[in-house]
Amino acid sequence: MDWVANIDTRIKTQEKENNMNNKLFKTSASTHLWSVLSFTSLLTIFPLAAEESITVVSWGGAYERACKEGYFDSFEEATGIKINIADFNGGLAQVRAQVESGNIQWDVVDIESQDGIIGCDEGLFEPLDEIELPDGPDGSSASDDFLEGSISECAIGTVTWSTVVAYNATTYKTDPPSTVKDFFDIEKYPGRRGMRRTPEVNLEFALIADGVPIEEIYETLSTEEGVDRAFAKLDTIKDSLLMWEAGAQPPQLLADKEVVMTTAYNGRIFNAQTVEEQPFVIIWDGQVRDFAQFVIPLGAPNMENAIKFVQHAALSSSQAGVANRISYGPVRLSAWELVGKHIPTAIDMRPHMPTHPDNSKTVLTNNPAWWAENKDNLFERFSAWLSN
Amino acid sequence: MKPQNYSERRGRWIPIMLVAPLVAFIGVTFIAPLGSMLKESVYDAEVANTLPGTVALLTQTWDRESLPSEEIYRKLASELIERSTEDRSVIGKVANRVNRLVPGTRSVWGKTARKLKNIEASDFRATLIDIDDRWEELELWHGIRQAGQKFSSRNYLHALDLEVSDEGNVVRVEEEKRAYVTLYLRTFYVAVTVTILCLLLGYPIANAIANASPTVSKILLILVLIPFWTSLLARTSSWIVLLQGQGVINDILVAIGWVQDDQRLSLMYNMFGTLVAMTQILLPFMVLPIYSVLNSMPPSYMRAAASLGANPIQAFTRVYWPQSLPGVYAGSLLVFILALGYYITPALVGGTKGQLISNMIAYHINNNNWGLGAAISMIVLVSVMLLYLLFDRWIGINKLKLS
């Protein structure tokens, strides 16, 4: 790809000059030919904004709405910088296409912690370890205040979320399931179970159910026997599995009684419980917790404002602003004090948070670095396991 | 050759100029991507260009059975420091590639590059192993050597569930890791079955449209086209609403007493659901080509057959059907090729076995493994080309009629 790289450098230089003056979309021969993904950006229409603006990429739906009301709006008010919100479905493919073609359209991206590590190693993101993060309202410094693992070299944590097991209360009149073990107990709780079509989280659940202590999960999975053990445990419920793809499916599957239990994102279940008044119950035992993080693609067009935005998002009040609208917990300890009533329905938010002490008796924190190393071969093994 | 006059030369250039945009279009949208896909699947120079000295030493001087010499460790360390100062992302790219061959080694690279900068070392082997003991593993060095080869067939081997054993033979990978061959077979099985179902359902519809009165035929045509214009996801979701356990069909069956409430039928999250949904989605691609052939067939042929004494079955099998074959071939080919590339519908309605080969291609492209994604695509492409050649040999491609 040497000669492609050459064309790329030439085009990049030219593009940088043009980018300073306008944001009109341009295509280059190399983007056209070599990155299928940016082909779709032909369809992107850029707002010709005269005022300053940044493009922030989020996940759509209730979460994005909570972020917008929680702190996007206050950022616009405080700085006068307009936020253009774009949606994506996670992954690094789009950021990679933009950075490698030199045609960067995104300023800030809300990303999964695993991609935060992979993208940082690949040099797709600006390093953020040097930027100054605001103190908490109680005066605590950011480095003490952020949860461990929520900040990495290129990524600043925004919220913490969990994958949990959930069920429909109307399915079980007496003695409902209460642990991850029960999810794997096909004798006591027969019926179909929903599970995301990825090895992530599922292998962890299998080992937790098989009695591996929480703190030894990734250690166990690092051995061949440990992986075999996880798949052996998955085997016990294989005939009752239904695989889901998107986070919107599990609540639907529960509502339709297509499954008796399913793994799900806690925020989606919360949304169904409160907004749609579904009788769903979350089993917090063995929840697998993860962080969402903000990154800035390397060479983002509005770098300075993007950094301002990330700093604003790191405020305790911003994180609590999200947590008061959807059940994704703040990643700053000091923000906990600001979590109160759910804004639309006025129910108390704290018991719904993955970080609430009652919900955190057995909690596994996802190890994104471990998954970054092992996901490719485990994805293949998981696919093979499903197919055969 | 005698010199040509001006108008003759110009006369030659005009047609070339006229087709030039088409040639350029085909070149840009078809030949170049195919060519680059083929190249991606066998060629990857990232590691060779980043660590040229280390790779050269590993290929030439290393015995492959014991740990590499101090010289190789020193070379690697110096190249790591040099490259990561220039551009920190190249080390990440090397880490990616080696990690694919030796899973669990990705973090070694960044960590080593970072720590080496602050260390004055004399014994590099000891230093590297001290930074991370994975530098003591032979497997990692084998991985670097292999990833350092610019041209290799490993993507193709991988995409066929094969690997090179320690003795150098090509063998199948362990049973629990065979992810791909089953998926090719399942993909072809689904595509063939859907094509047959579409033909069985589509032919009578096309026939009805072609032979109905103009008003009725217009209405029927619109009924075929409306779902055709509806989003794929919307149609897949409607099938979920219809087929699921608490879905419309099961509700009706329970209401009329054909099925017990606690024994509702499993109509989806299995192969049945995949076939039903895909057949409905692809049906227009079968109906339209057959319809266009049938529509242009003069009705006098059938009357002639009847007047010569053929009964309706004979008239159909010996006159009508043979003449409709170009449309049948075209429709079948369209449906088959489109069905090969489906993955959202099977993933949503197909349950545990709802994965087809396109899901794997999508996964690898999204995870920056273009080489493997390209190799899988090439295998599918070549299989389709072979089928196409067989089709041409047995039936003849000129028999195809798309409109």
Main beta sheet of chain A, described? 11 strands, mixed
CATH architecture of the largest domain in chain A: 3-Layer(aba) Sandwich
The largest pleated sheet of chain B is described as: 2 strands, antiparallel
| Cα end-to-end separation of chain B | 44 Å
Low-confidence stretches of chain A: 1-49
CATH evolutionary superfamily of the largest domain in chain A: Periplasmic binding protein-like II
Let me know the average pLDDT of chain B: 89
The ordered string of helix (H) and strand (E) elements of chain A is: HHHEHEHEHHEEHEHHHEHEHEHHEEH
Structural class of chain A: alpha/beta
Per the CATH scheme, the topology name of the largest domain in chain A is: D-Maltodextrin-Binding Protein, domain 2
In what order do the strands lie side by side in the largest sheet of chain B? 1-2
What does this entry look like structurally?
The complex is a heterodimer of chains A (388) and B (403). In chain A, 40% of the residues lie in helices and 17% in strands. Chain A is α/β, with parallel strands linked by helices and 388 residues long. In chain A, helix 4 packs antiparallel against helix 15 and helix 9 crosses helix 11. Chain A is globular, with a radius of gyration of 22 Å. Residues 1-49 of chain A have low confidence and may be disordered. With 403 residues, chain B is mainly α. Chain B has two domains: 46-150, no CATH class; 181-399, MetI-like fold. Chain B has a two-stranded antiparallel sheet. Chain B starts with 5 loop residues before the first helix and ends in a 9-residue tail after the last helix. The chains are: A alpha/beta (388), B mainly alpha (403). At the A-B interface, helix 2, helix 6, strand 7 and helix 16 of A face helix 1, helix 5, helix 6, helix 10 and helix 18 of B.
